[in-house]
Amino acid sequence: MNATANTPVNRQWILQRRPQGAVSREDFAFVEGRVPEIGDGDVLVRSLYFGYDASQRIWLTDDGGYMKPIMPGEPMRCMGIGQVTDSRNPDYKSGDLVEGFMSWQDYAVVRADGPMPLRHLPKADFPLSWNLGVFGVGGLTAYFGVTDGLKVKDGDTVVISAATGATGSLACQIARLHGAKTVIGIAGGADKCNWVVENTGCDACVDYKSADWTNRLAELAPNGVDAYFDNVGGDMLDEMFLLMAPKGRILICGAMSQGYTGVKVQGPTNYMRICTHQLTVQGILLFNYAQQIPQAAQQIGQWVMEGKLKVSENLQEGFEKAPDLLPTMFTGKDPGKLVLRIADPQ
Ligand SMILES: NC(=O)c1ccc[n+]([C@@H]2O[C@H](COP(=O)([O-])OP(=O)(O)OC[C@H]3O[C@@H](n4cnc5c(N)ncnc54)[C@H](OP(=O)(O)O)[C@@H]3O)[C@@H](O)[C@H]2O)c1
After folding, report:
1. Does the predicted model carry a pTM greater than 0.85?
2. Residue 37 pLDDT exceeds 80
3. Closest CA to 48 of 110, 140, 4
4. Are the C-beta atoms of residues 88 and 38 closer than 8 Å to each other?
5. Smallest Cα–Cα separation from 175: which of 138, 205, 202, 206?
6. Which of 21, 116, 122, 173 has the fewest C-beta atoms lying within 10 Å of its C-beta?
7. How many whole angstroms from 165 Cα to the centroid of ligand 1?
């Protein structure tokens, strides 16, 4: 915390202009202000970790996508972990550790309600930051996507794109735990593909940057793909329609290839395969599973404790890095969940 004993300073990264195209550091301004006052029902949270999610780029568009857009002058919204320092909500008290929607500032006034209510974090033997990864957006979306969206079952051949990512790396493992016979990842480059095979238990990983990636995938799945967990969209999704088995299922989770600079994205041209192969295409939005999160987190926790789920985290340090890390979600980053540590709990 950049503060003196009596007058804490609230460092903020605020949006100074709406990004056009790729997001950059210059879209944000660093300011220092006062710690905000809280009103009835509010909770004041001191930031400990910021999580990085591709959807943050959507929130920066004029439209905001599925949430209110972030306006110039406001601190950048993120999923975060914090510690309550003041509360006018009976459900939260000073010292509580919580996870939920926060923003790039040392102290944020947080409402406990909304689409993803502020979550109390249990005392646990694993690192606090994992509540943004395996127990956060990525892990939970992977869990609900595999178990409910795709309904992966014994014997399935499953393909998962963005397999080095926070969501994909866990979806690969959960698909196997749910009975998939063959699990194939998709990632960019030989090193990342090796990482996927070594760290997610995939049988194989296909490099989407190689010219013949669709042939390679067809060889690995000679009877077609039963379930495809799509994090990438665009041309890759288009090609996947041609690789699906009859009655295959596709889960639309994200569209990394589209950069999220606007809400209009490239749609598939091979969609008639939905008709000829009787495919099911379904979307997922984690918000819609808010009530089932405690139960899912318990199952994920059990798998972690039993050593059945390997957690990969890309942990960075320092408040000053907050805007520099956001573009790396689209330009290339190390595998695992990207998290920025701001402070330790007191
Ligand atoms: N619907 C929901 O509720 C929900 C919830 C969570 C996440 N999501 C979505 O799930 C997706 C993954 O999120 P995440 O948090 O797991 O992200 P992440 O950890 O940043 O991983 C994203 C991965 O995307 C790959 N990628 C980036 N640009 C690509 C491109 N042009 N073509 C192919 N792959 C590309 C990168 O892999 P390589 O290095 O191999 O290229 C990267 O590892 C995102 O689209 C996100 O919006 C949706």
Report:
1. yes
2. yes
3. 110
4. yes
5. 202
6. 21
7. 6
Give tens-digit pLDDT for 69-120: 999 999 999 999 999 999 999 999 999 999 999 999 999 999 888 777 899 9
Establish whether residue 167 lines the binding site of ligand 1, counting it when its CB lies within 6 angstroms of any ligand atom.
Answer: yes
* Domain 10-133+311-341: CATH architecture, name and number where available: Alpha-Beta Complex (3.90)
**Residue that the structure tokens 């805007």 belong to:** 323
Q: How far apart are CA 150 and CA 313, in angstroms?
A: 25
What CATH number matches the domain at 137-287, 3.30.1380.10, 3.40.50.410, 1.10.730.10, 3.40.50.720? 3.40.50.720
For the chain, the domains span 10-133+311-341, 137-287
Cα of 187 from ligand 1 centre, angstroms? 10
Query: Is the CB–ligand 1 distance for residue 225 below 6 Å?
Result: no
pLDDT at 1 over 70: no
Q: Do domains 10-133+311-341 and 137-287 have the same CATH topology?
A: no
What is the Cβ-side half-sphere exposure of residue 214, based on CA atoms within 13 angstroms?
10
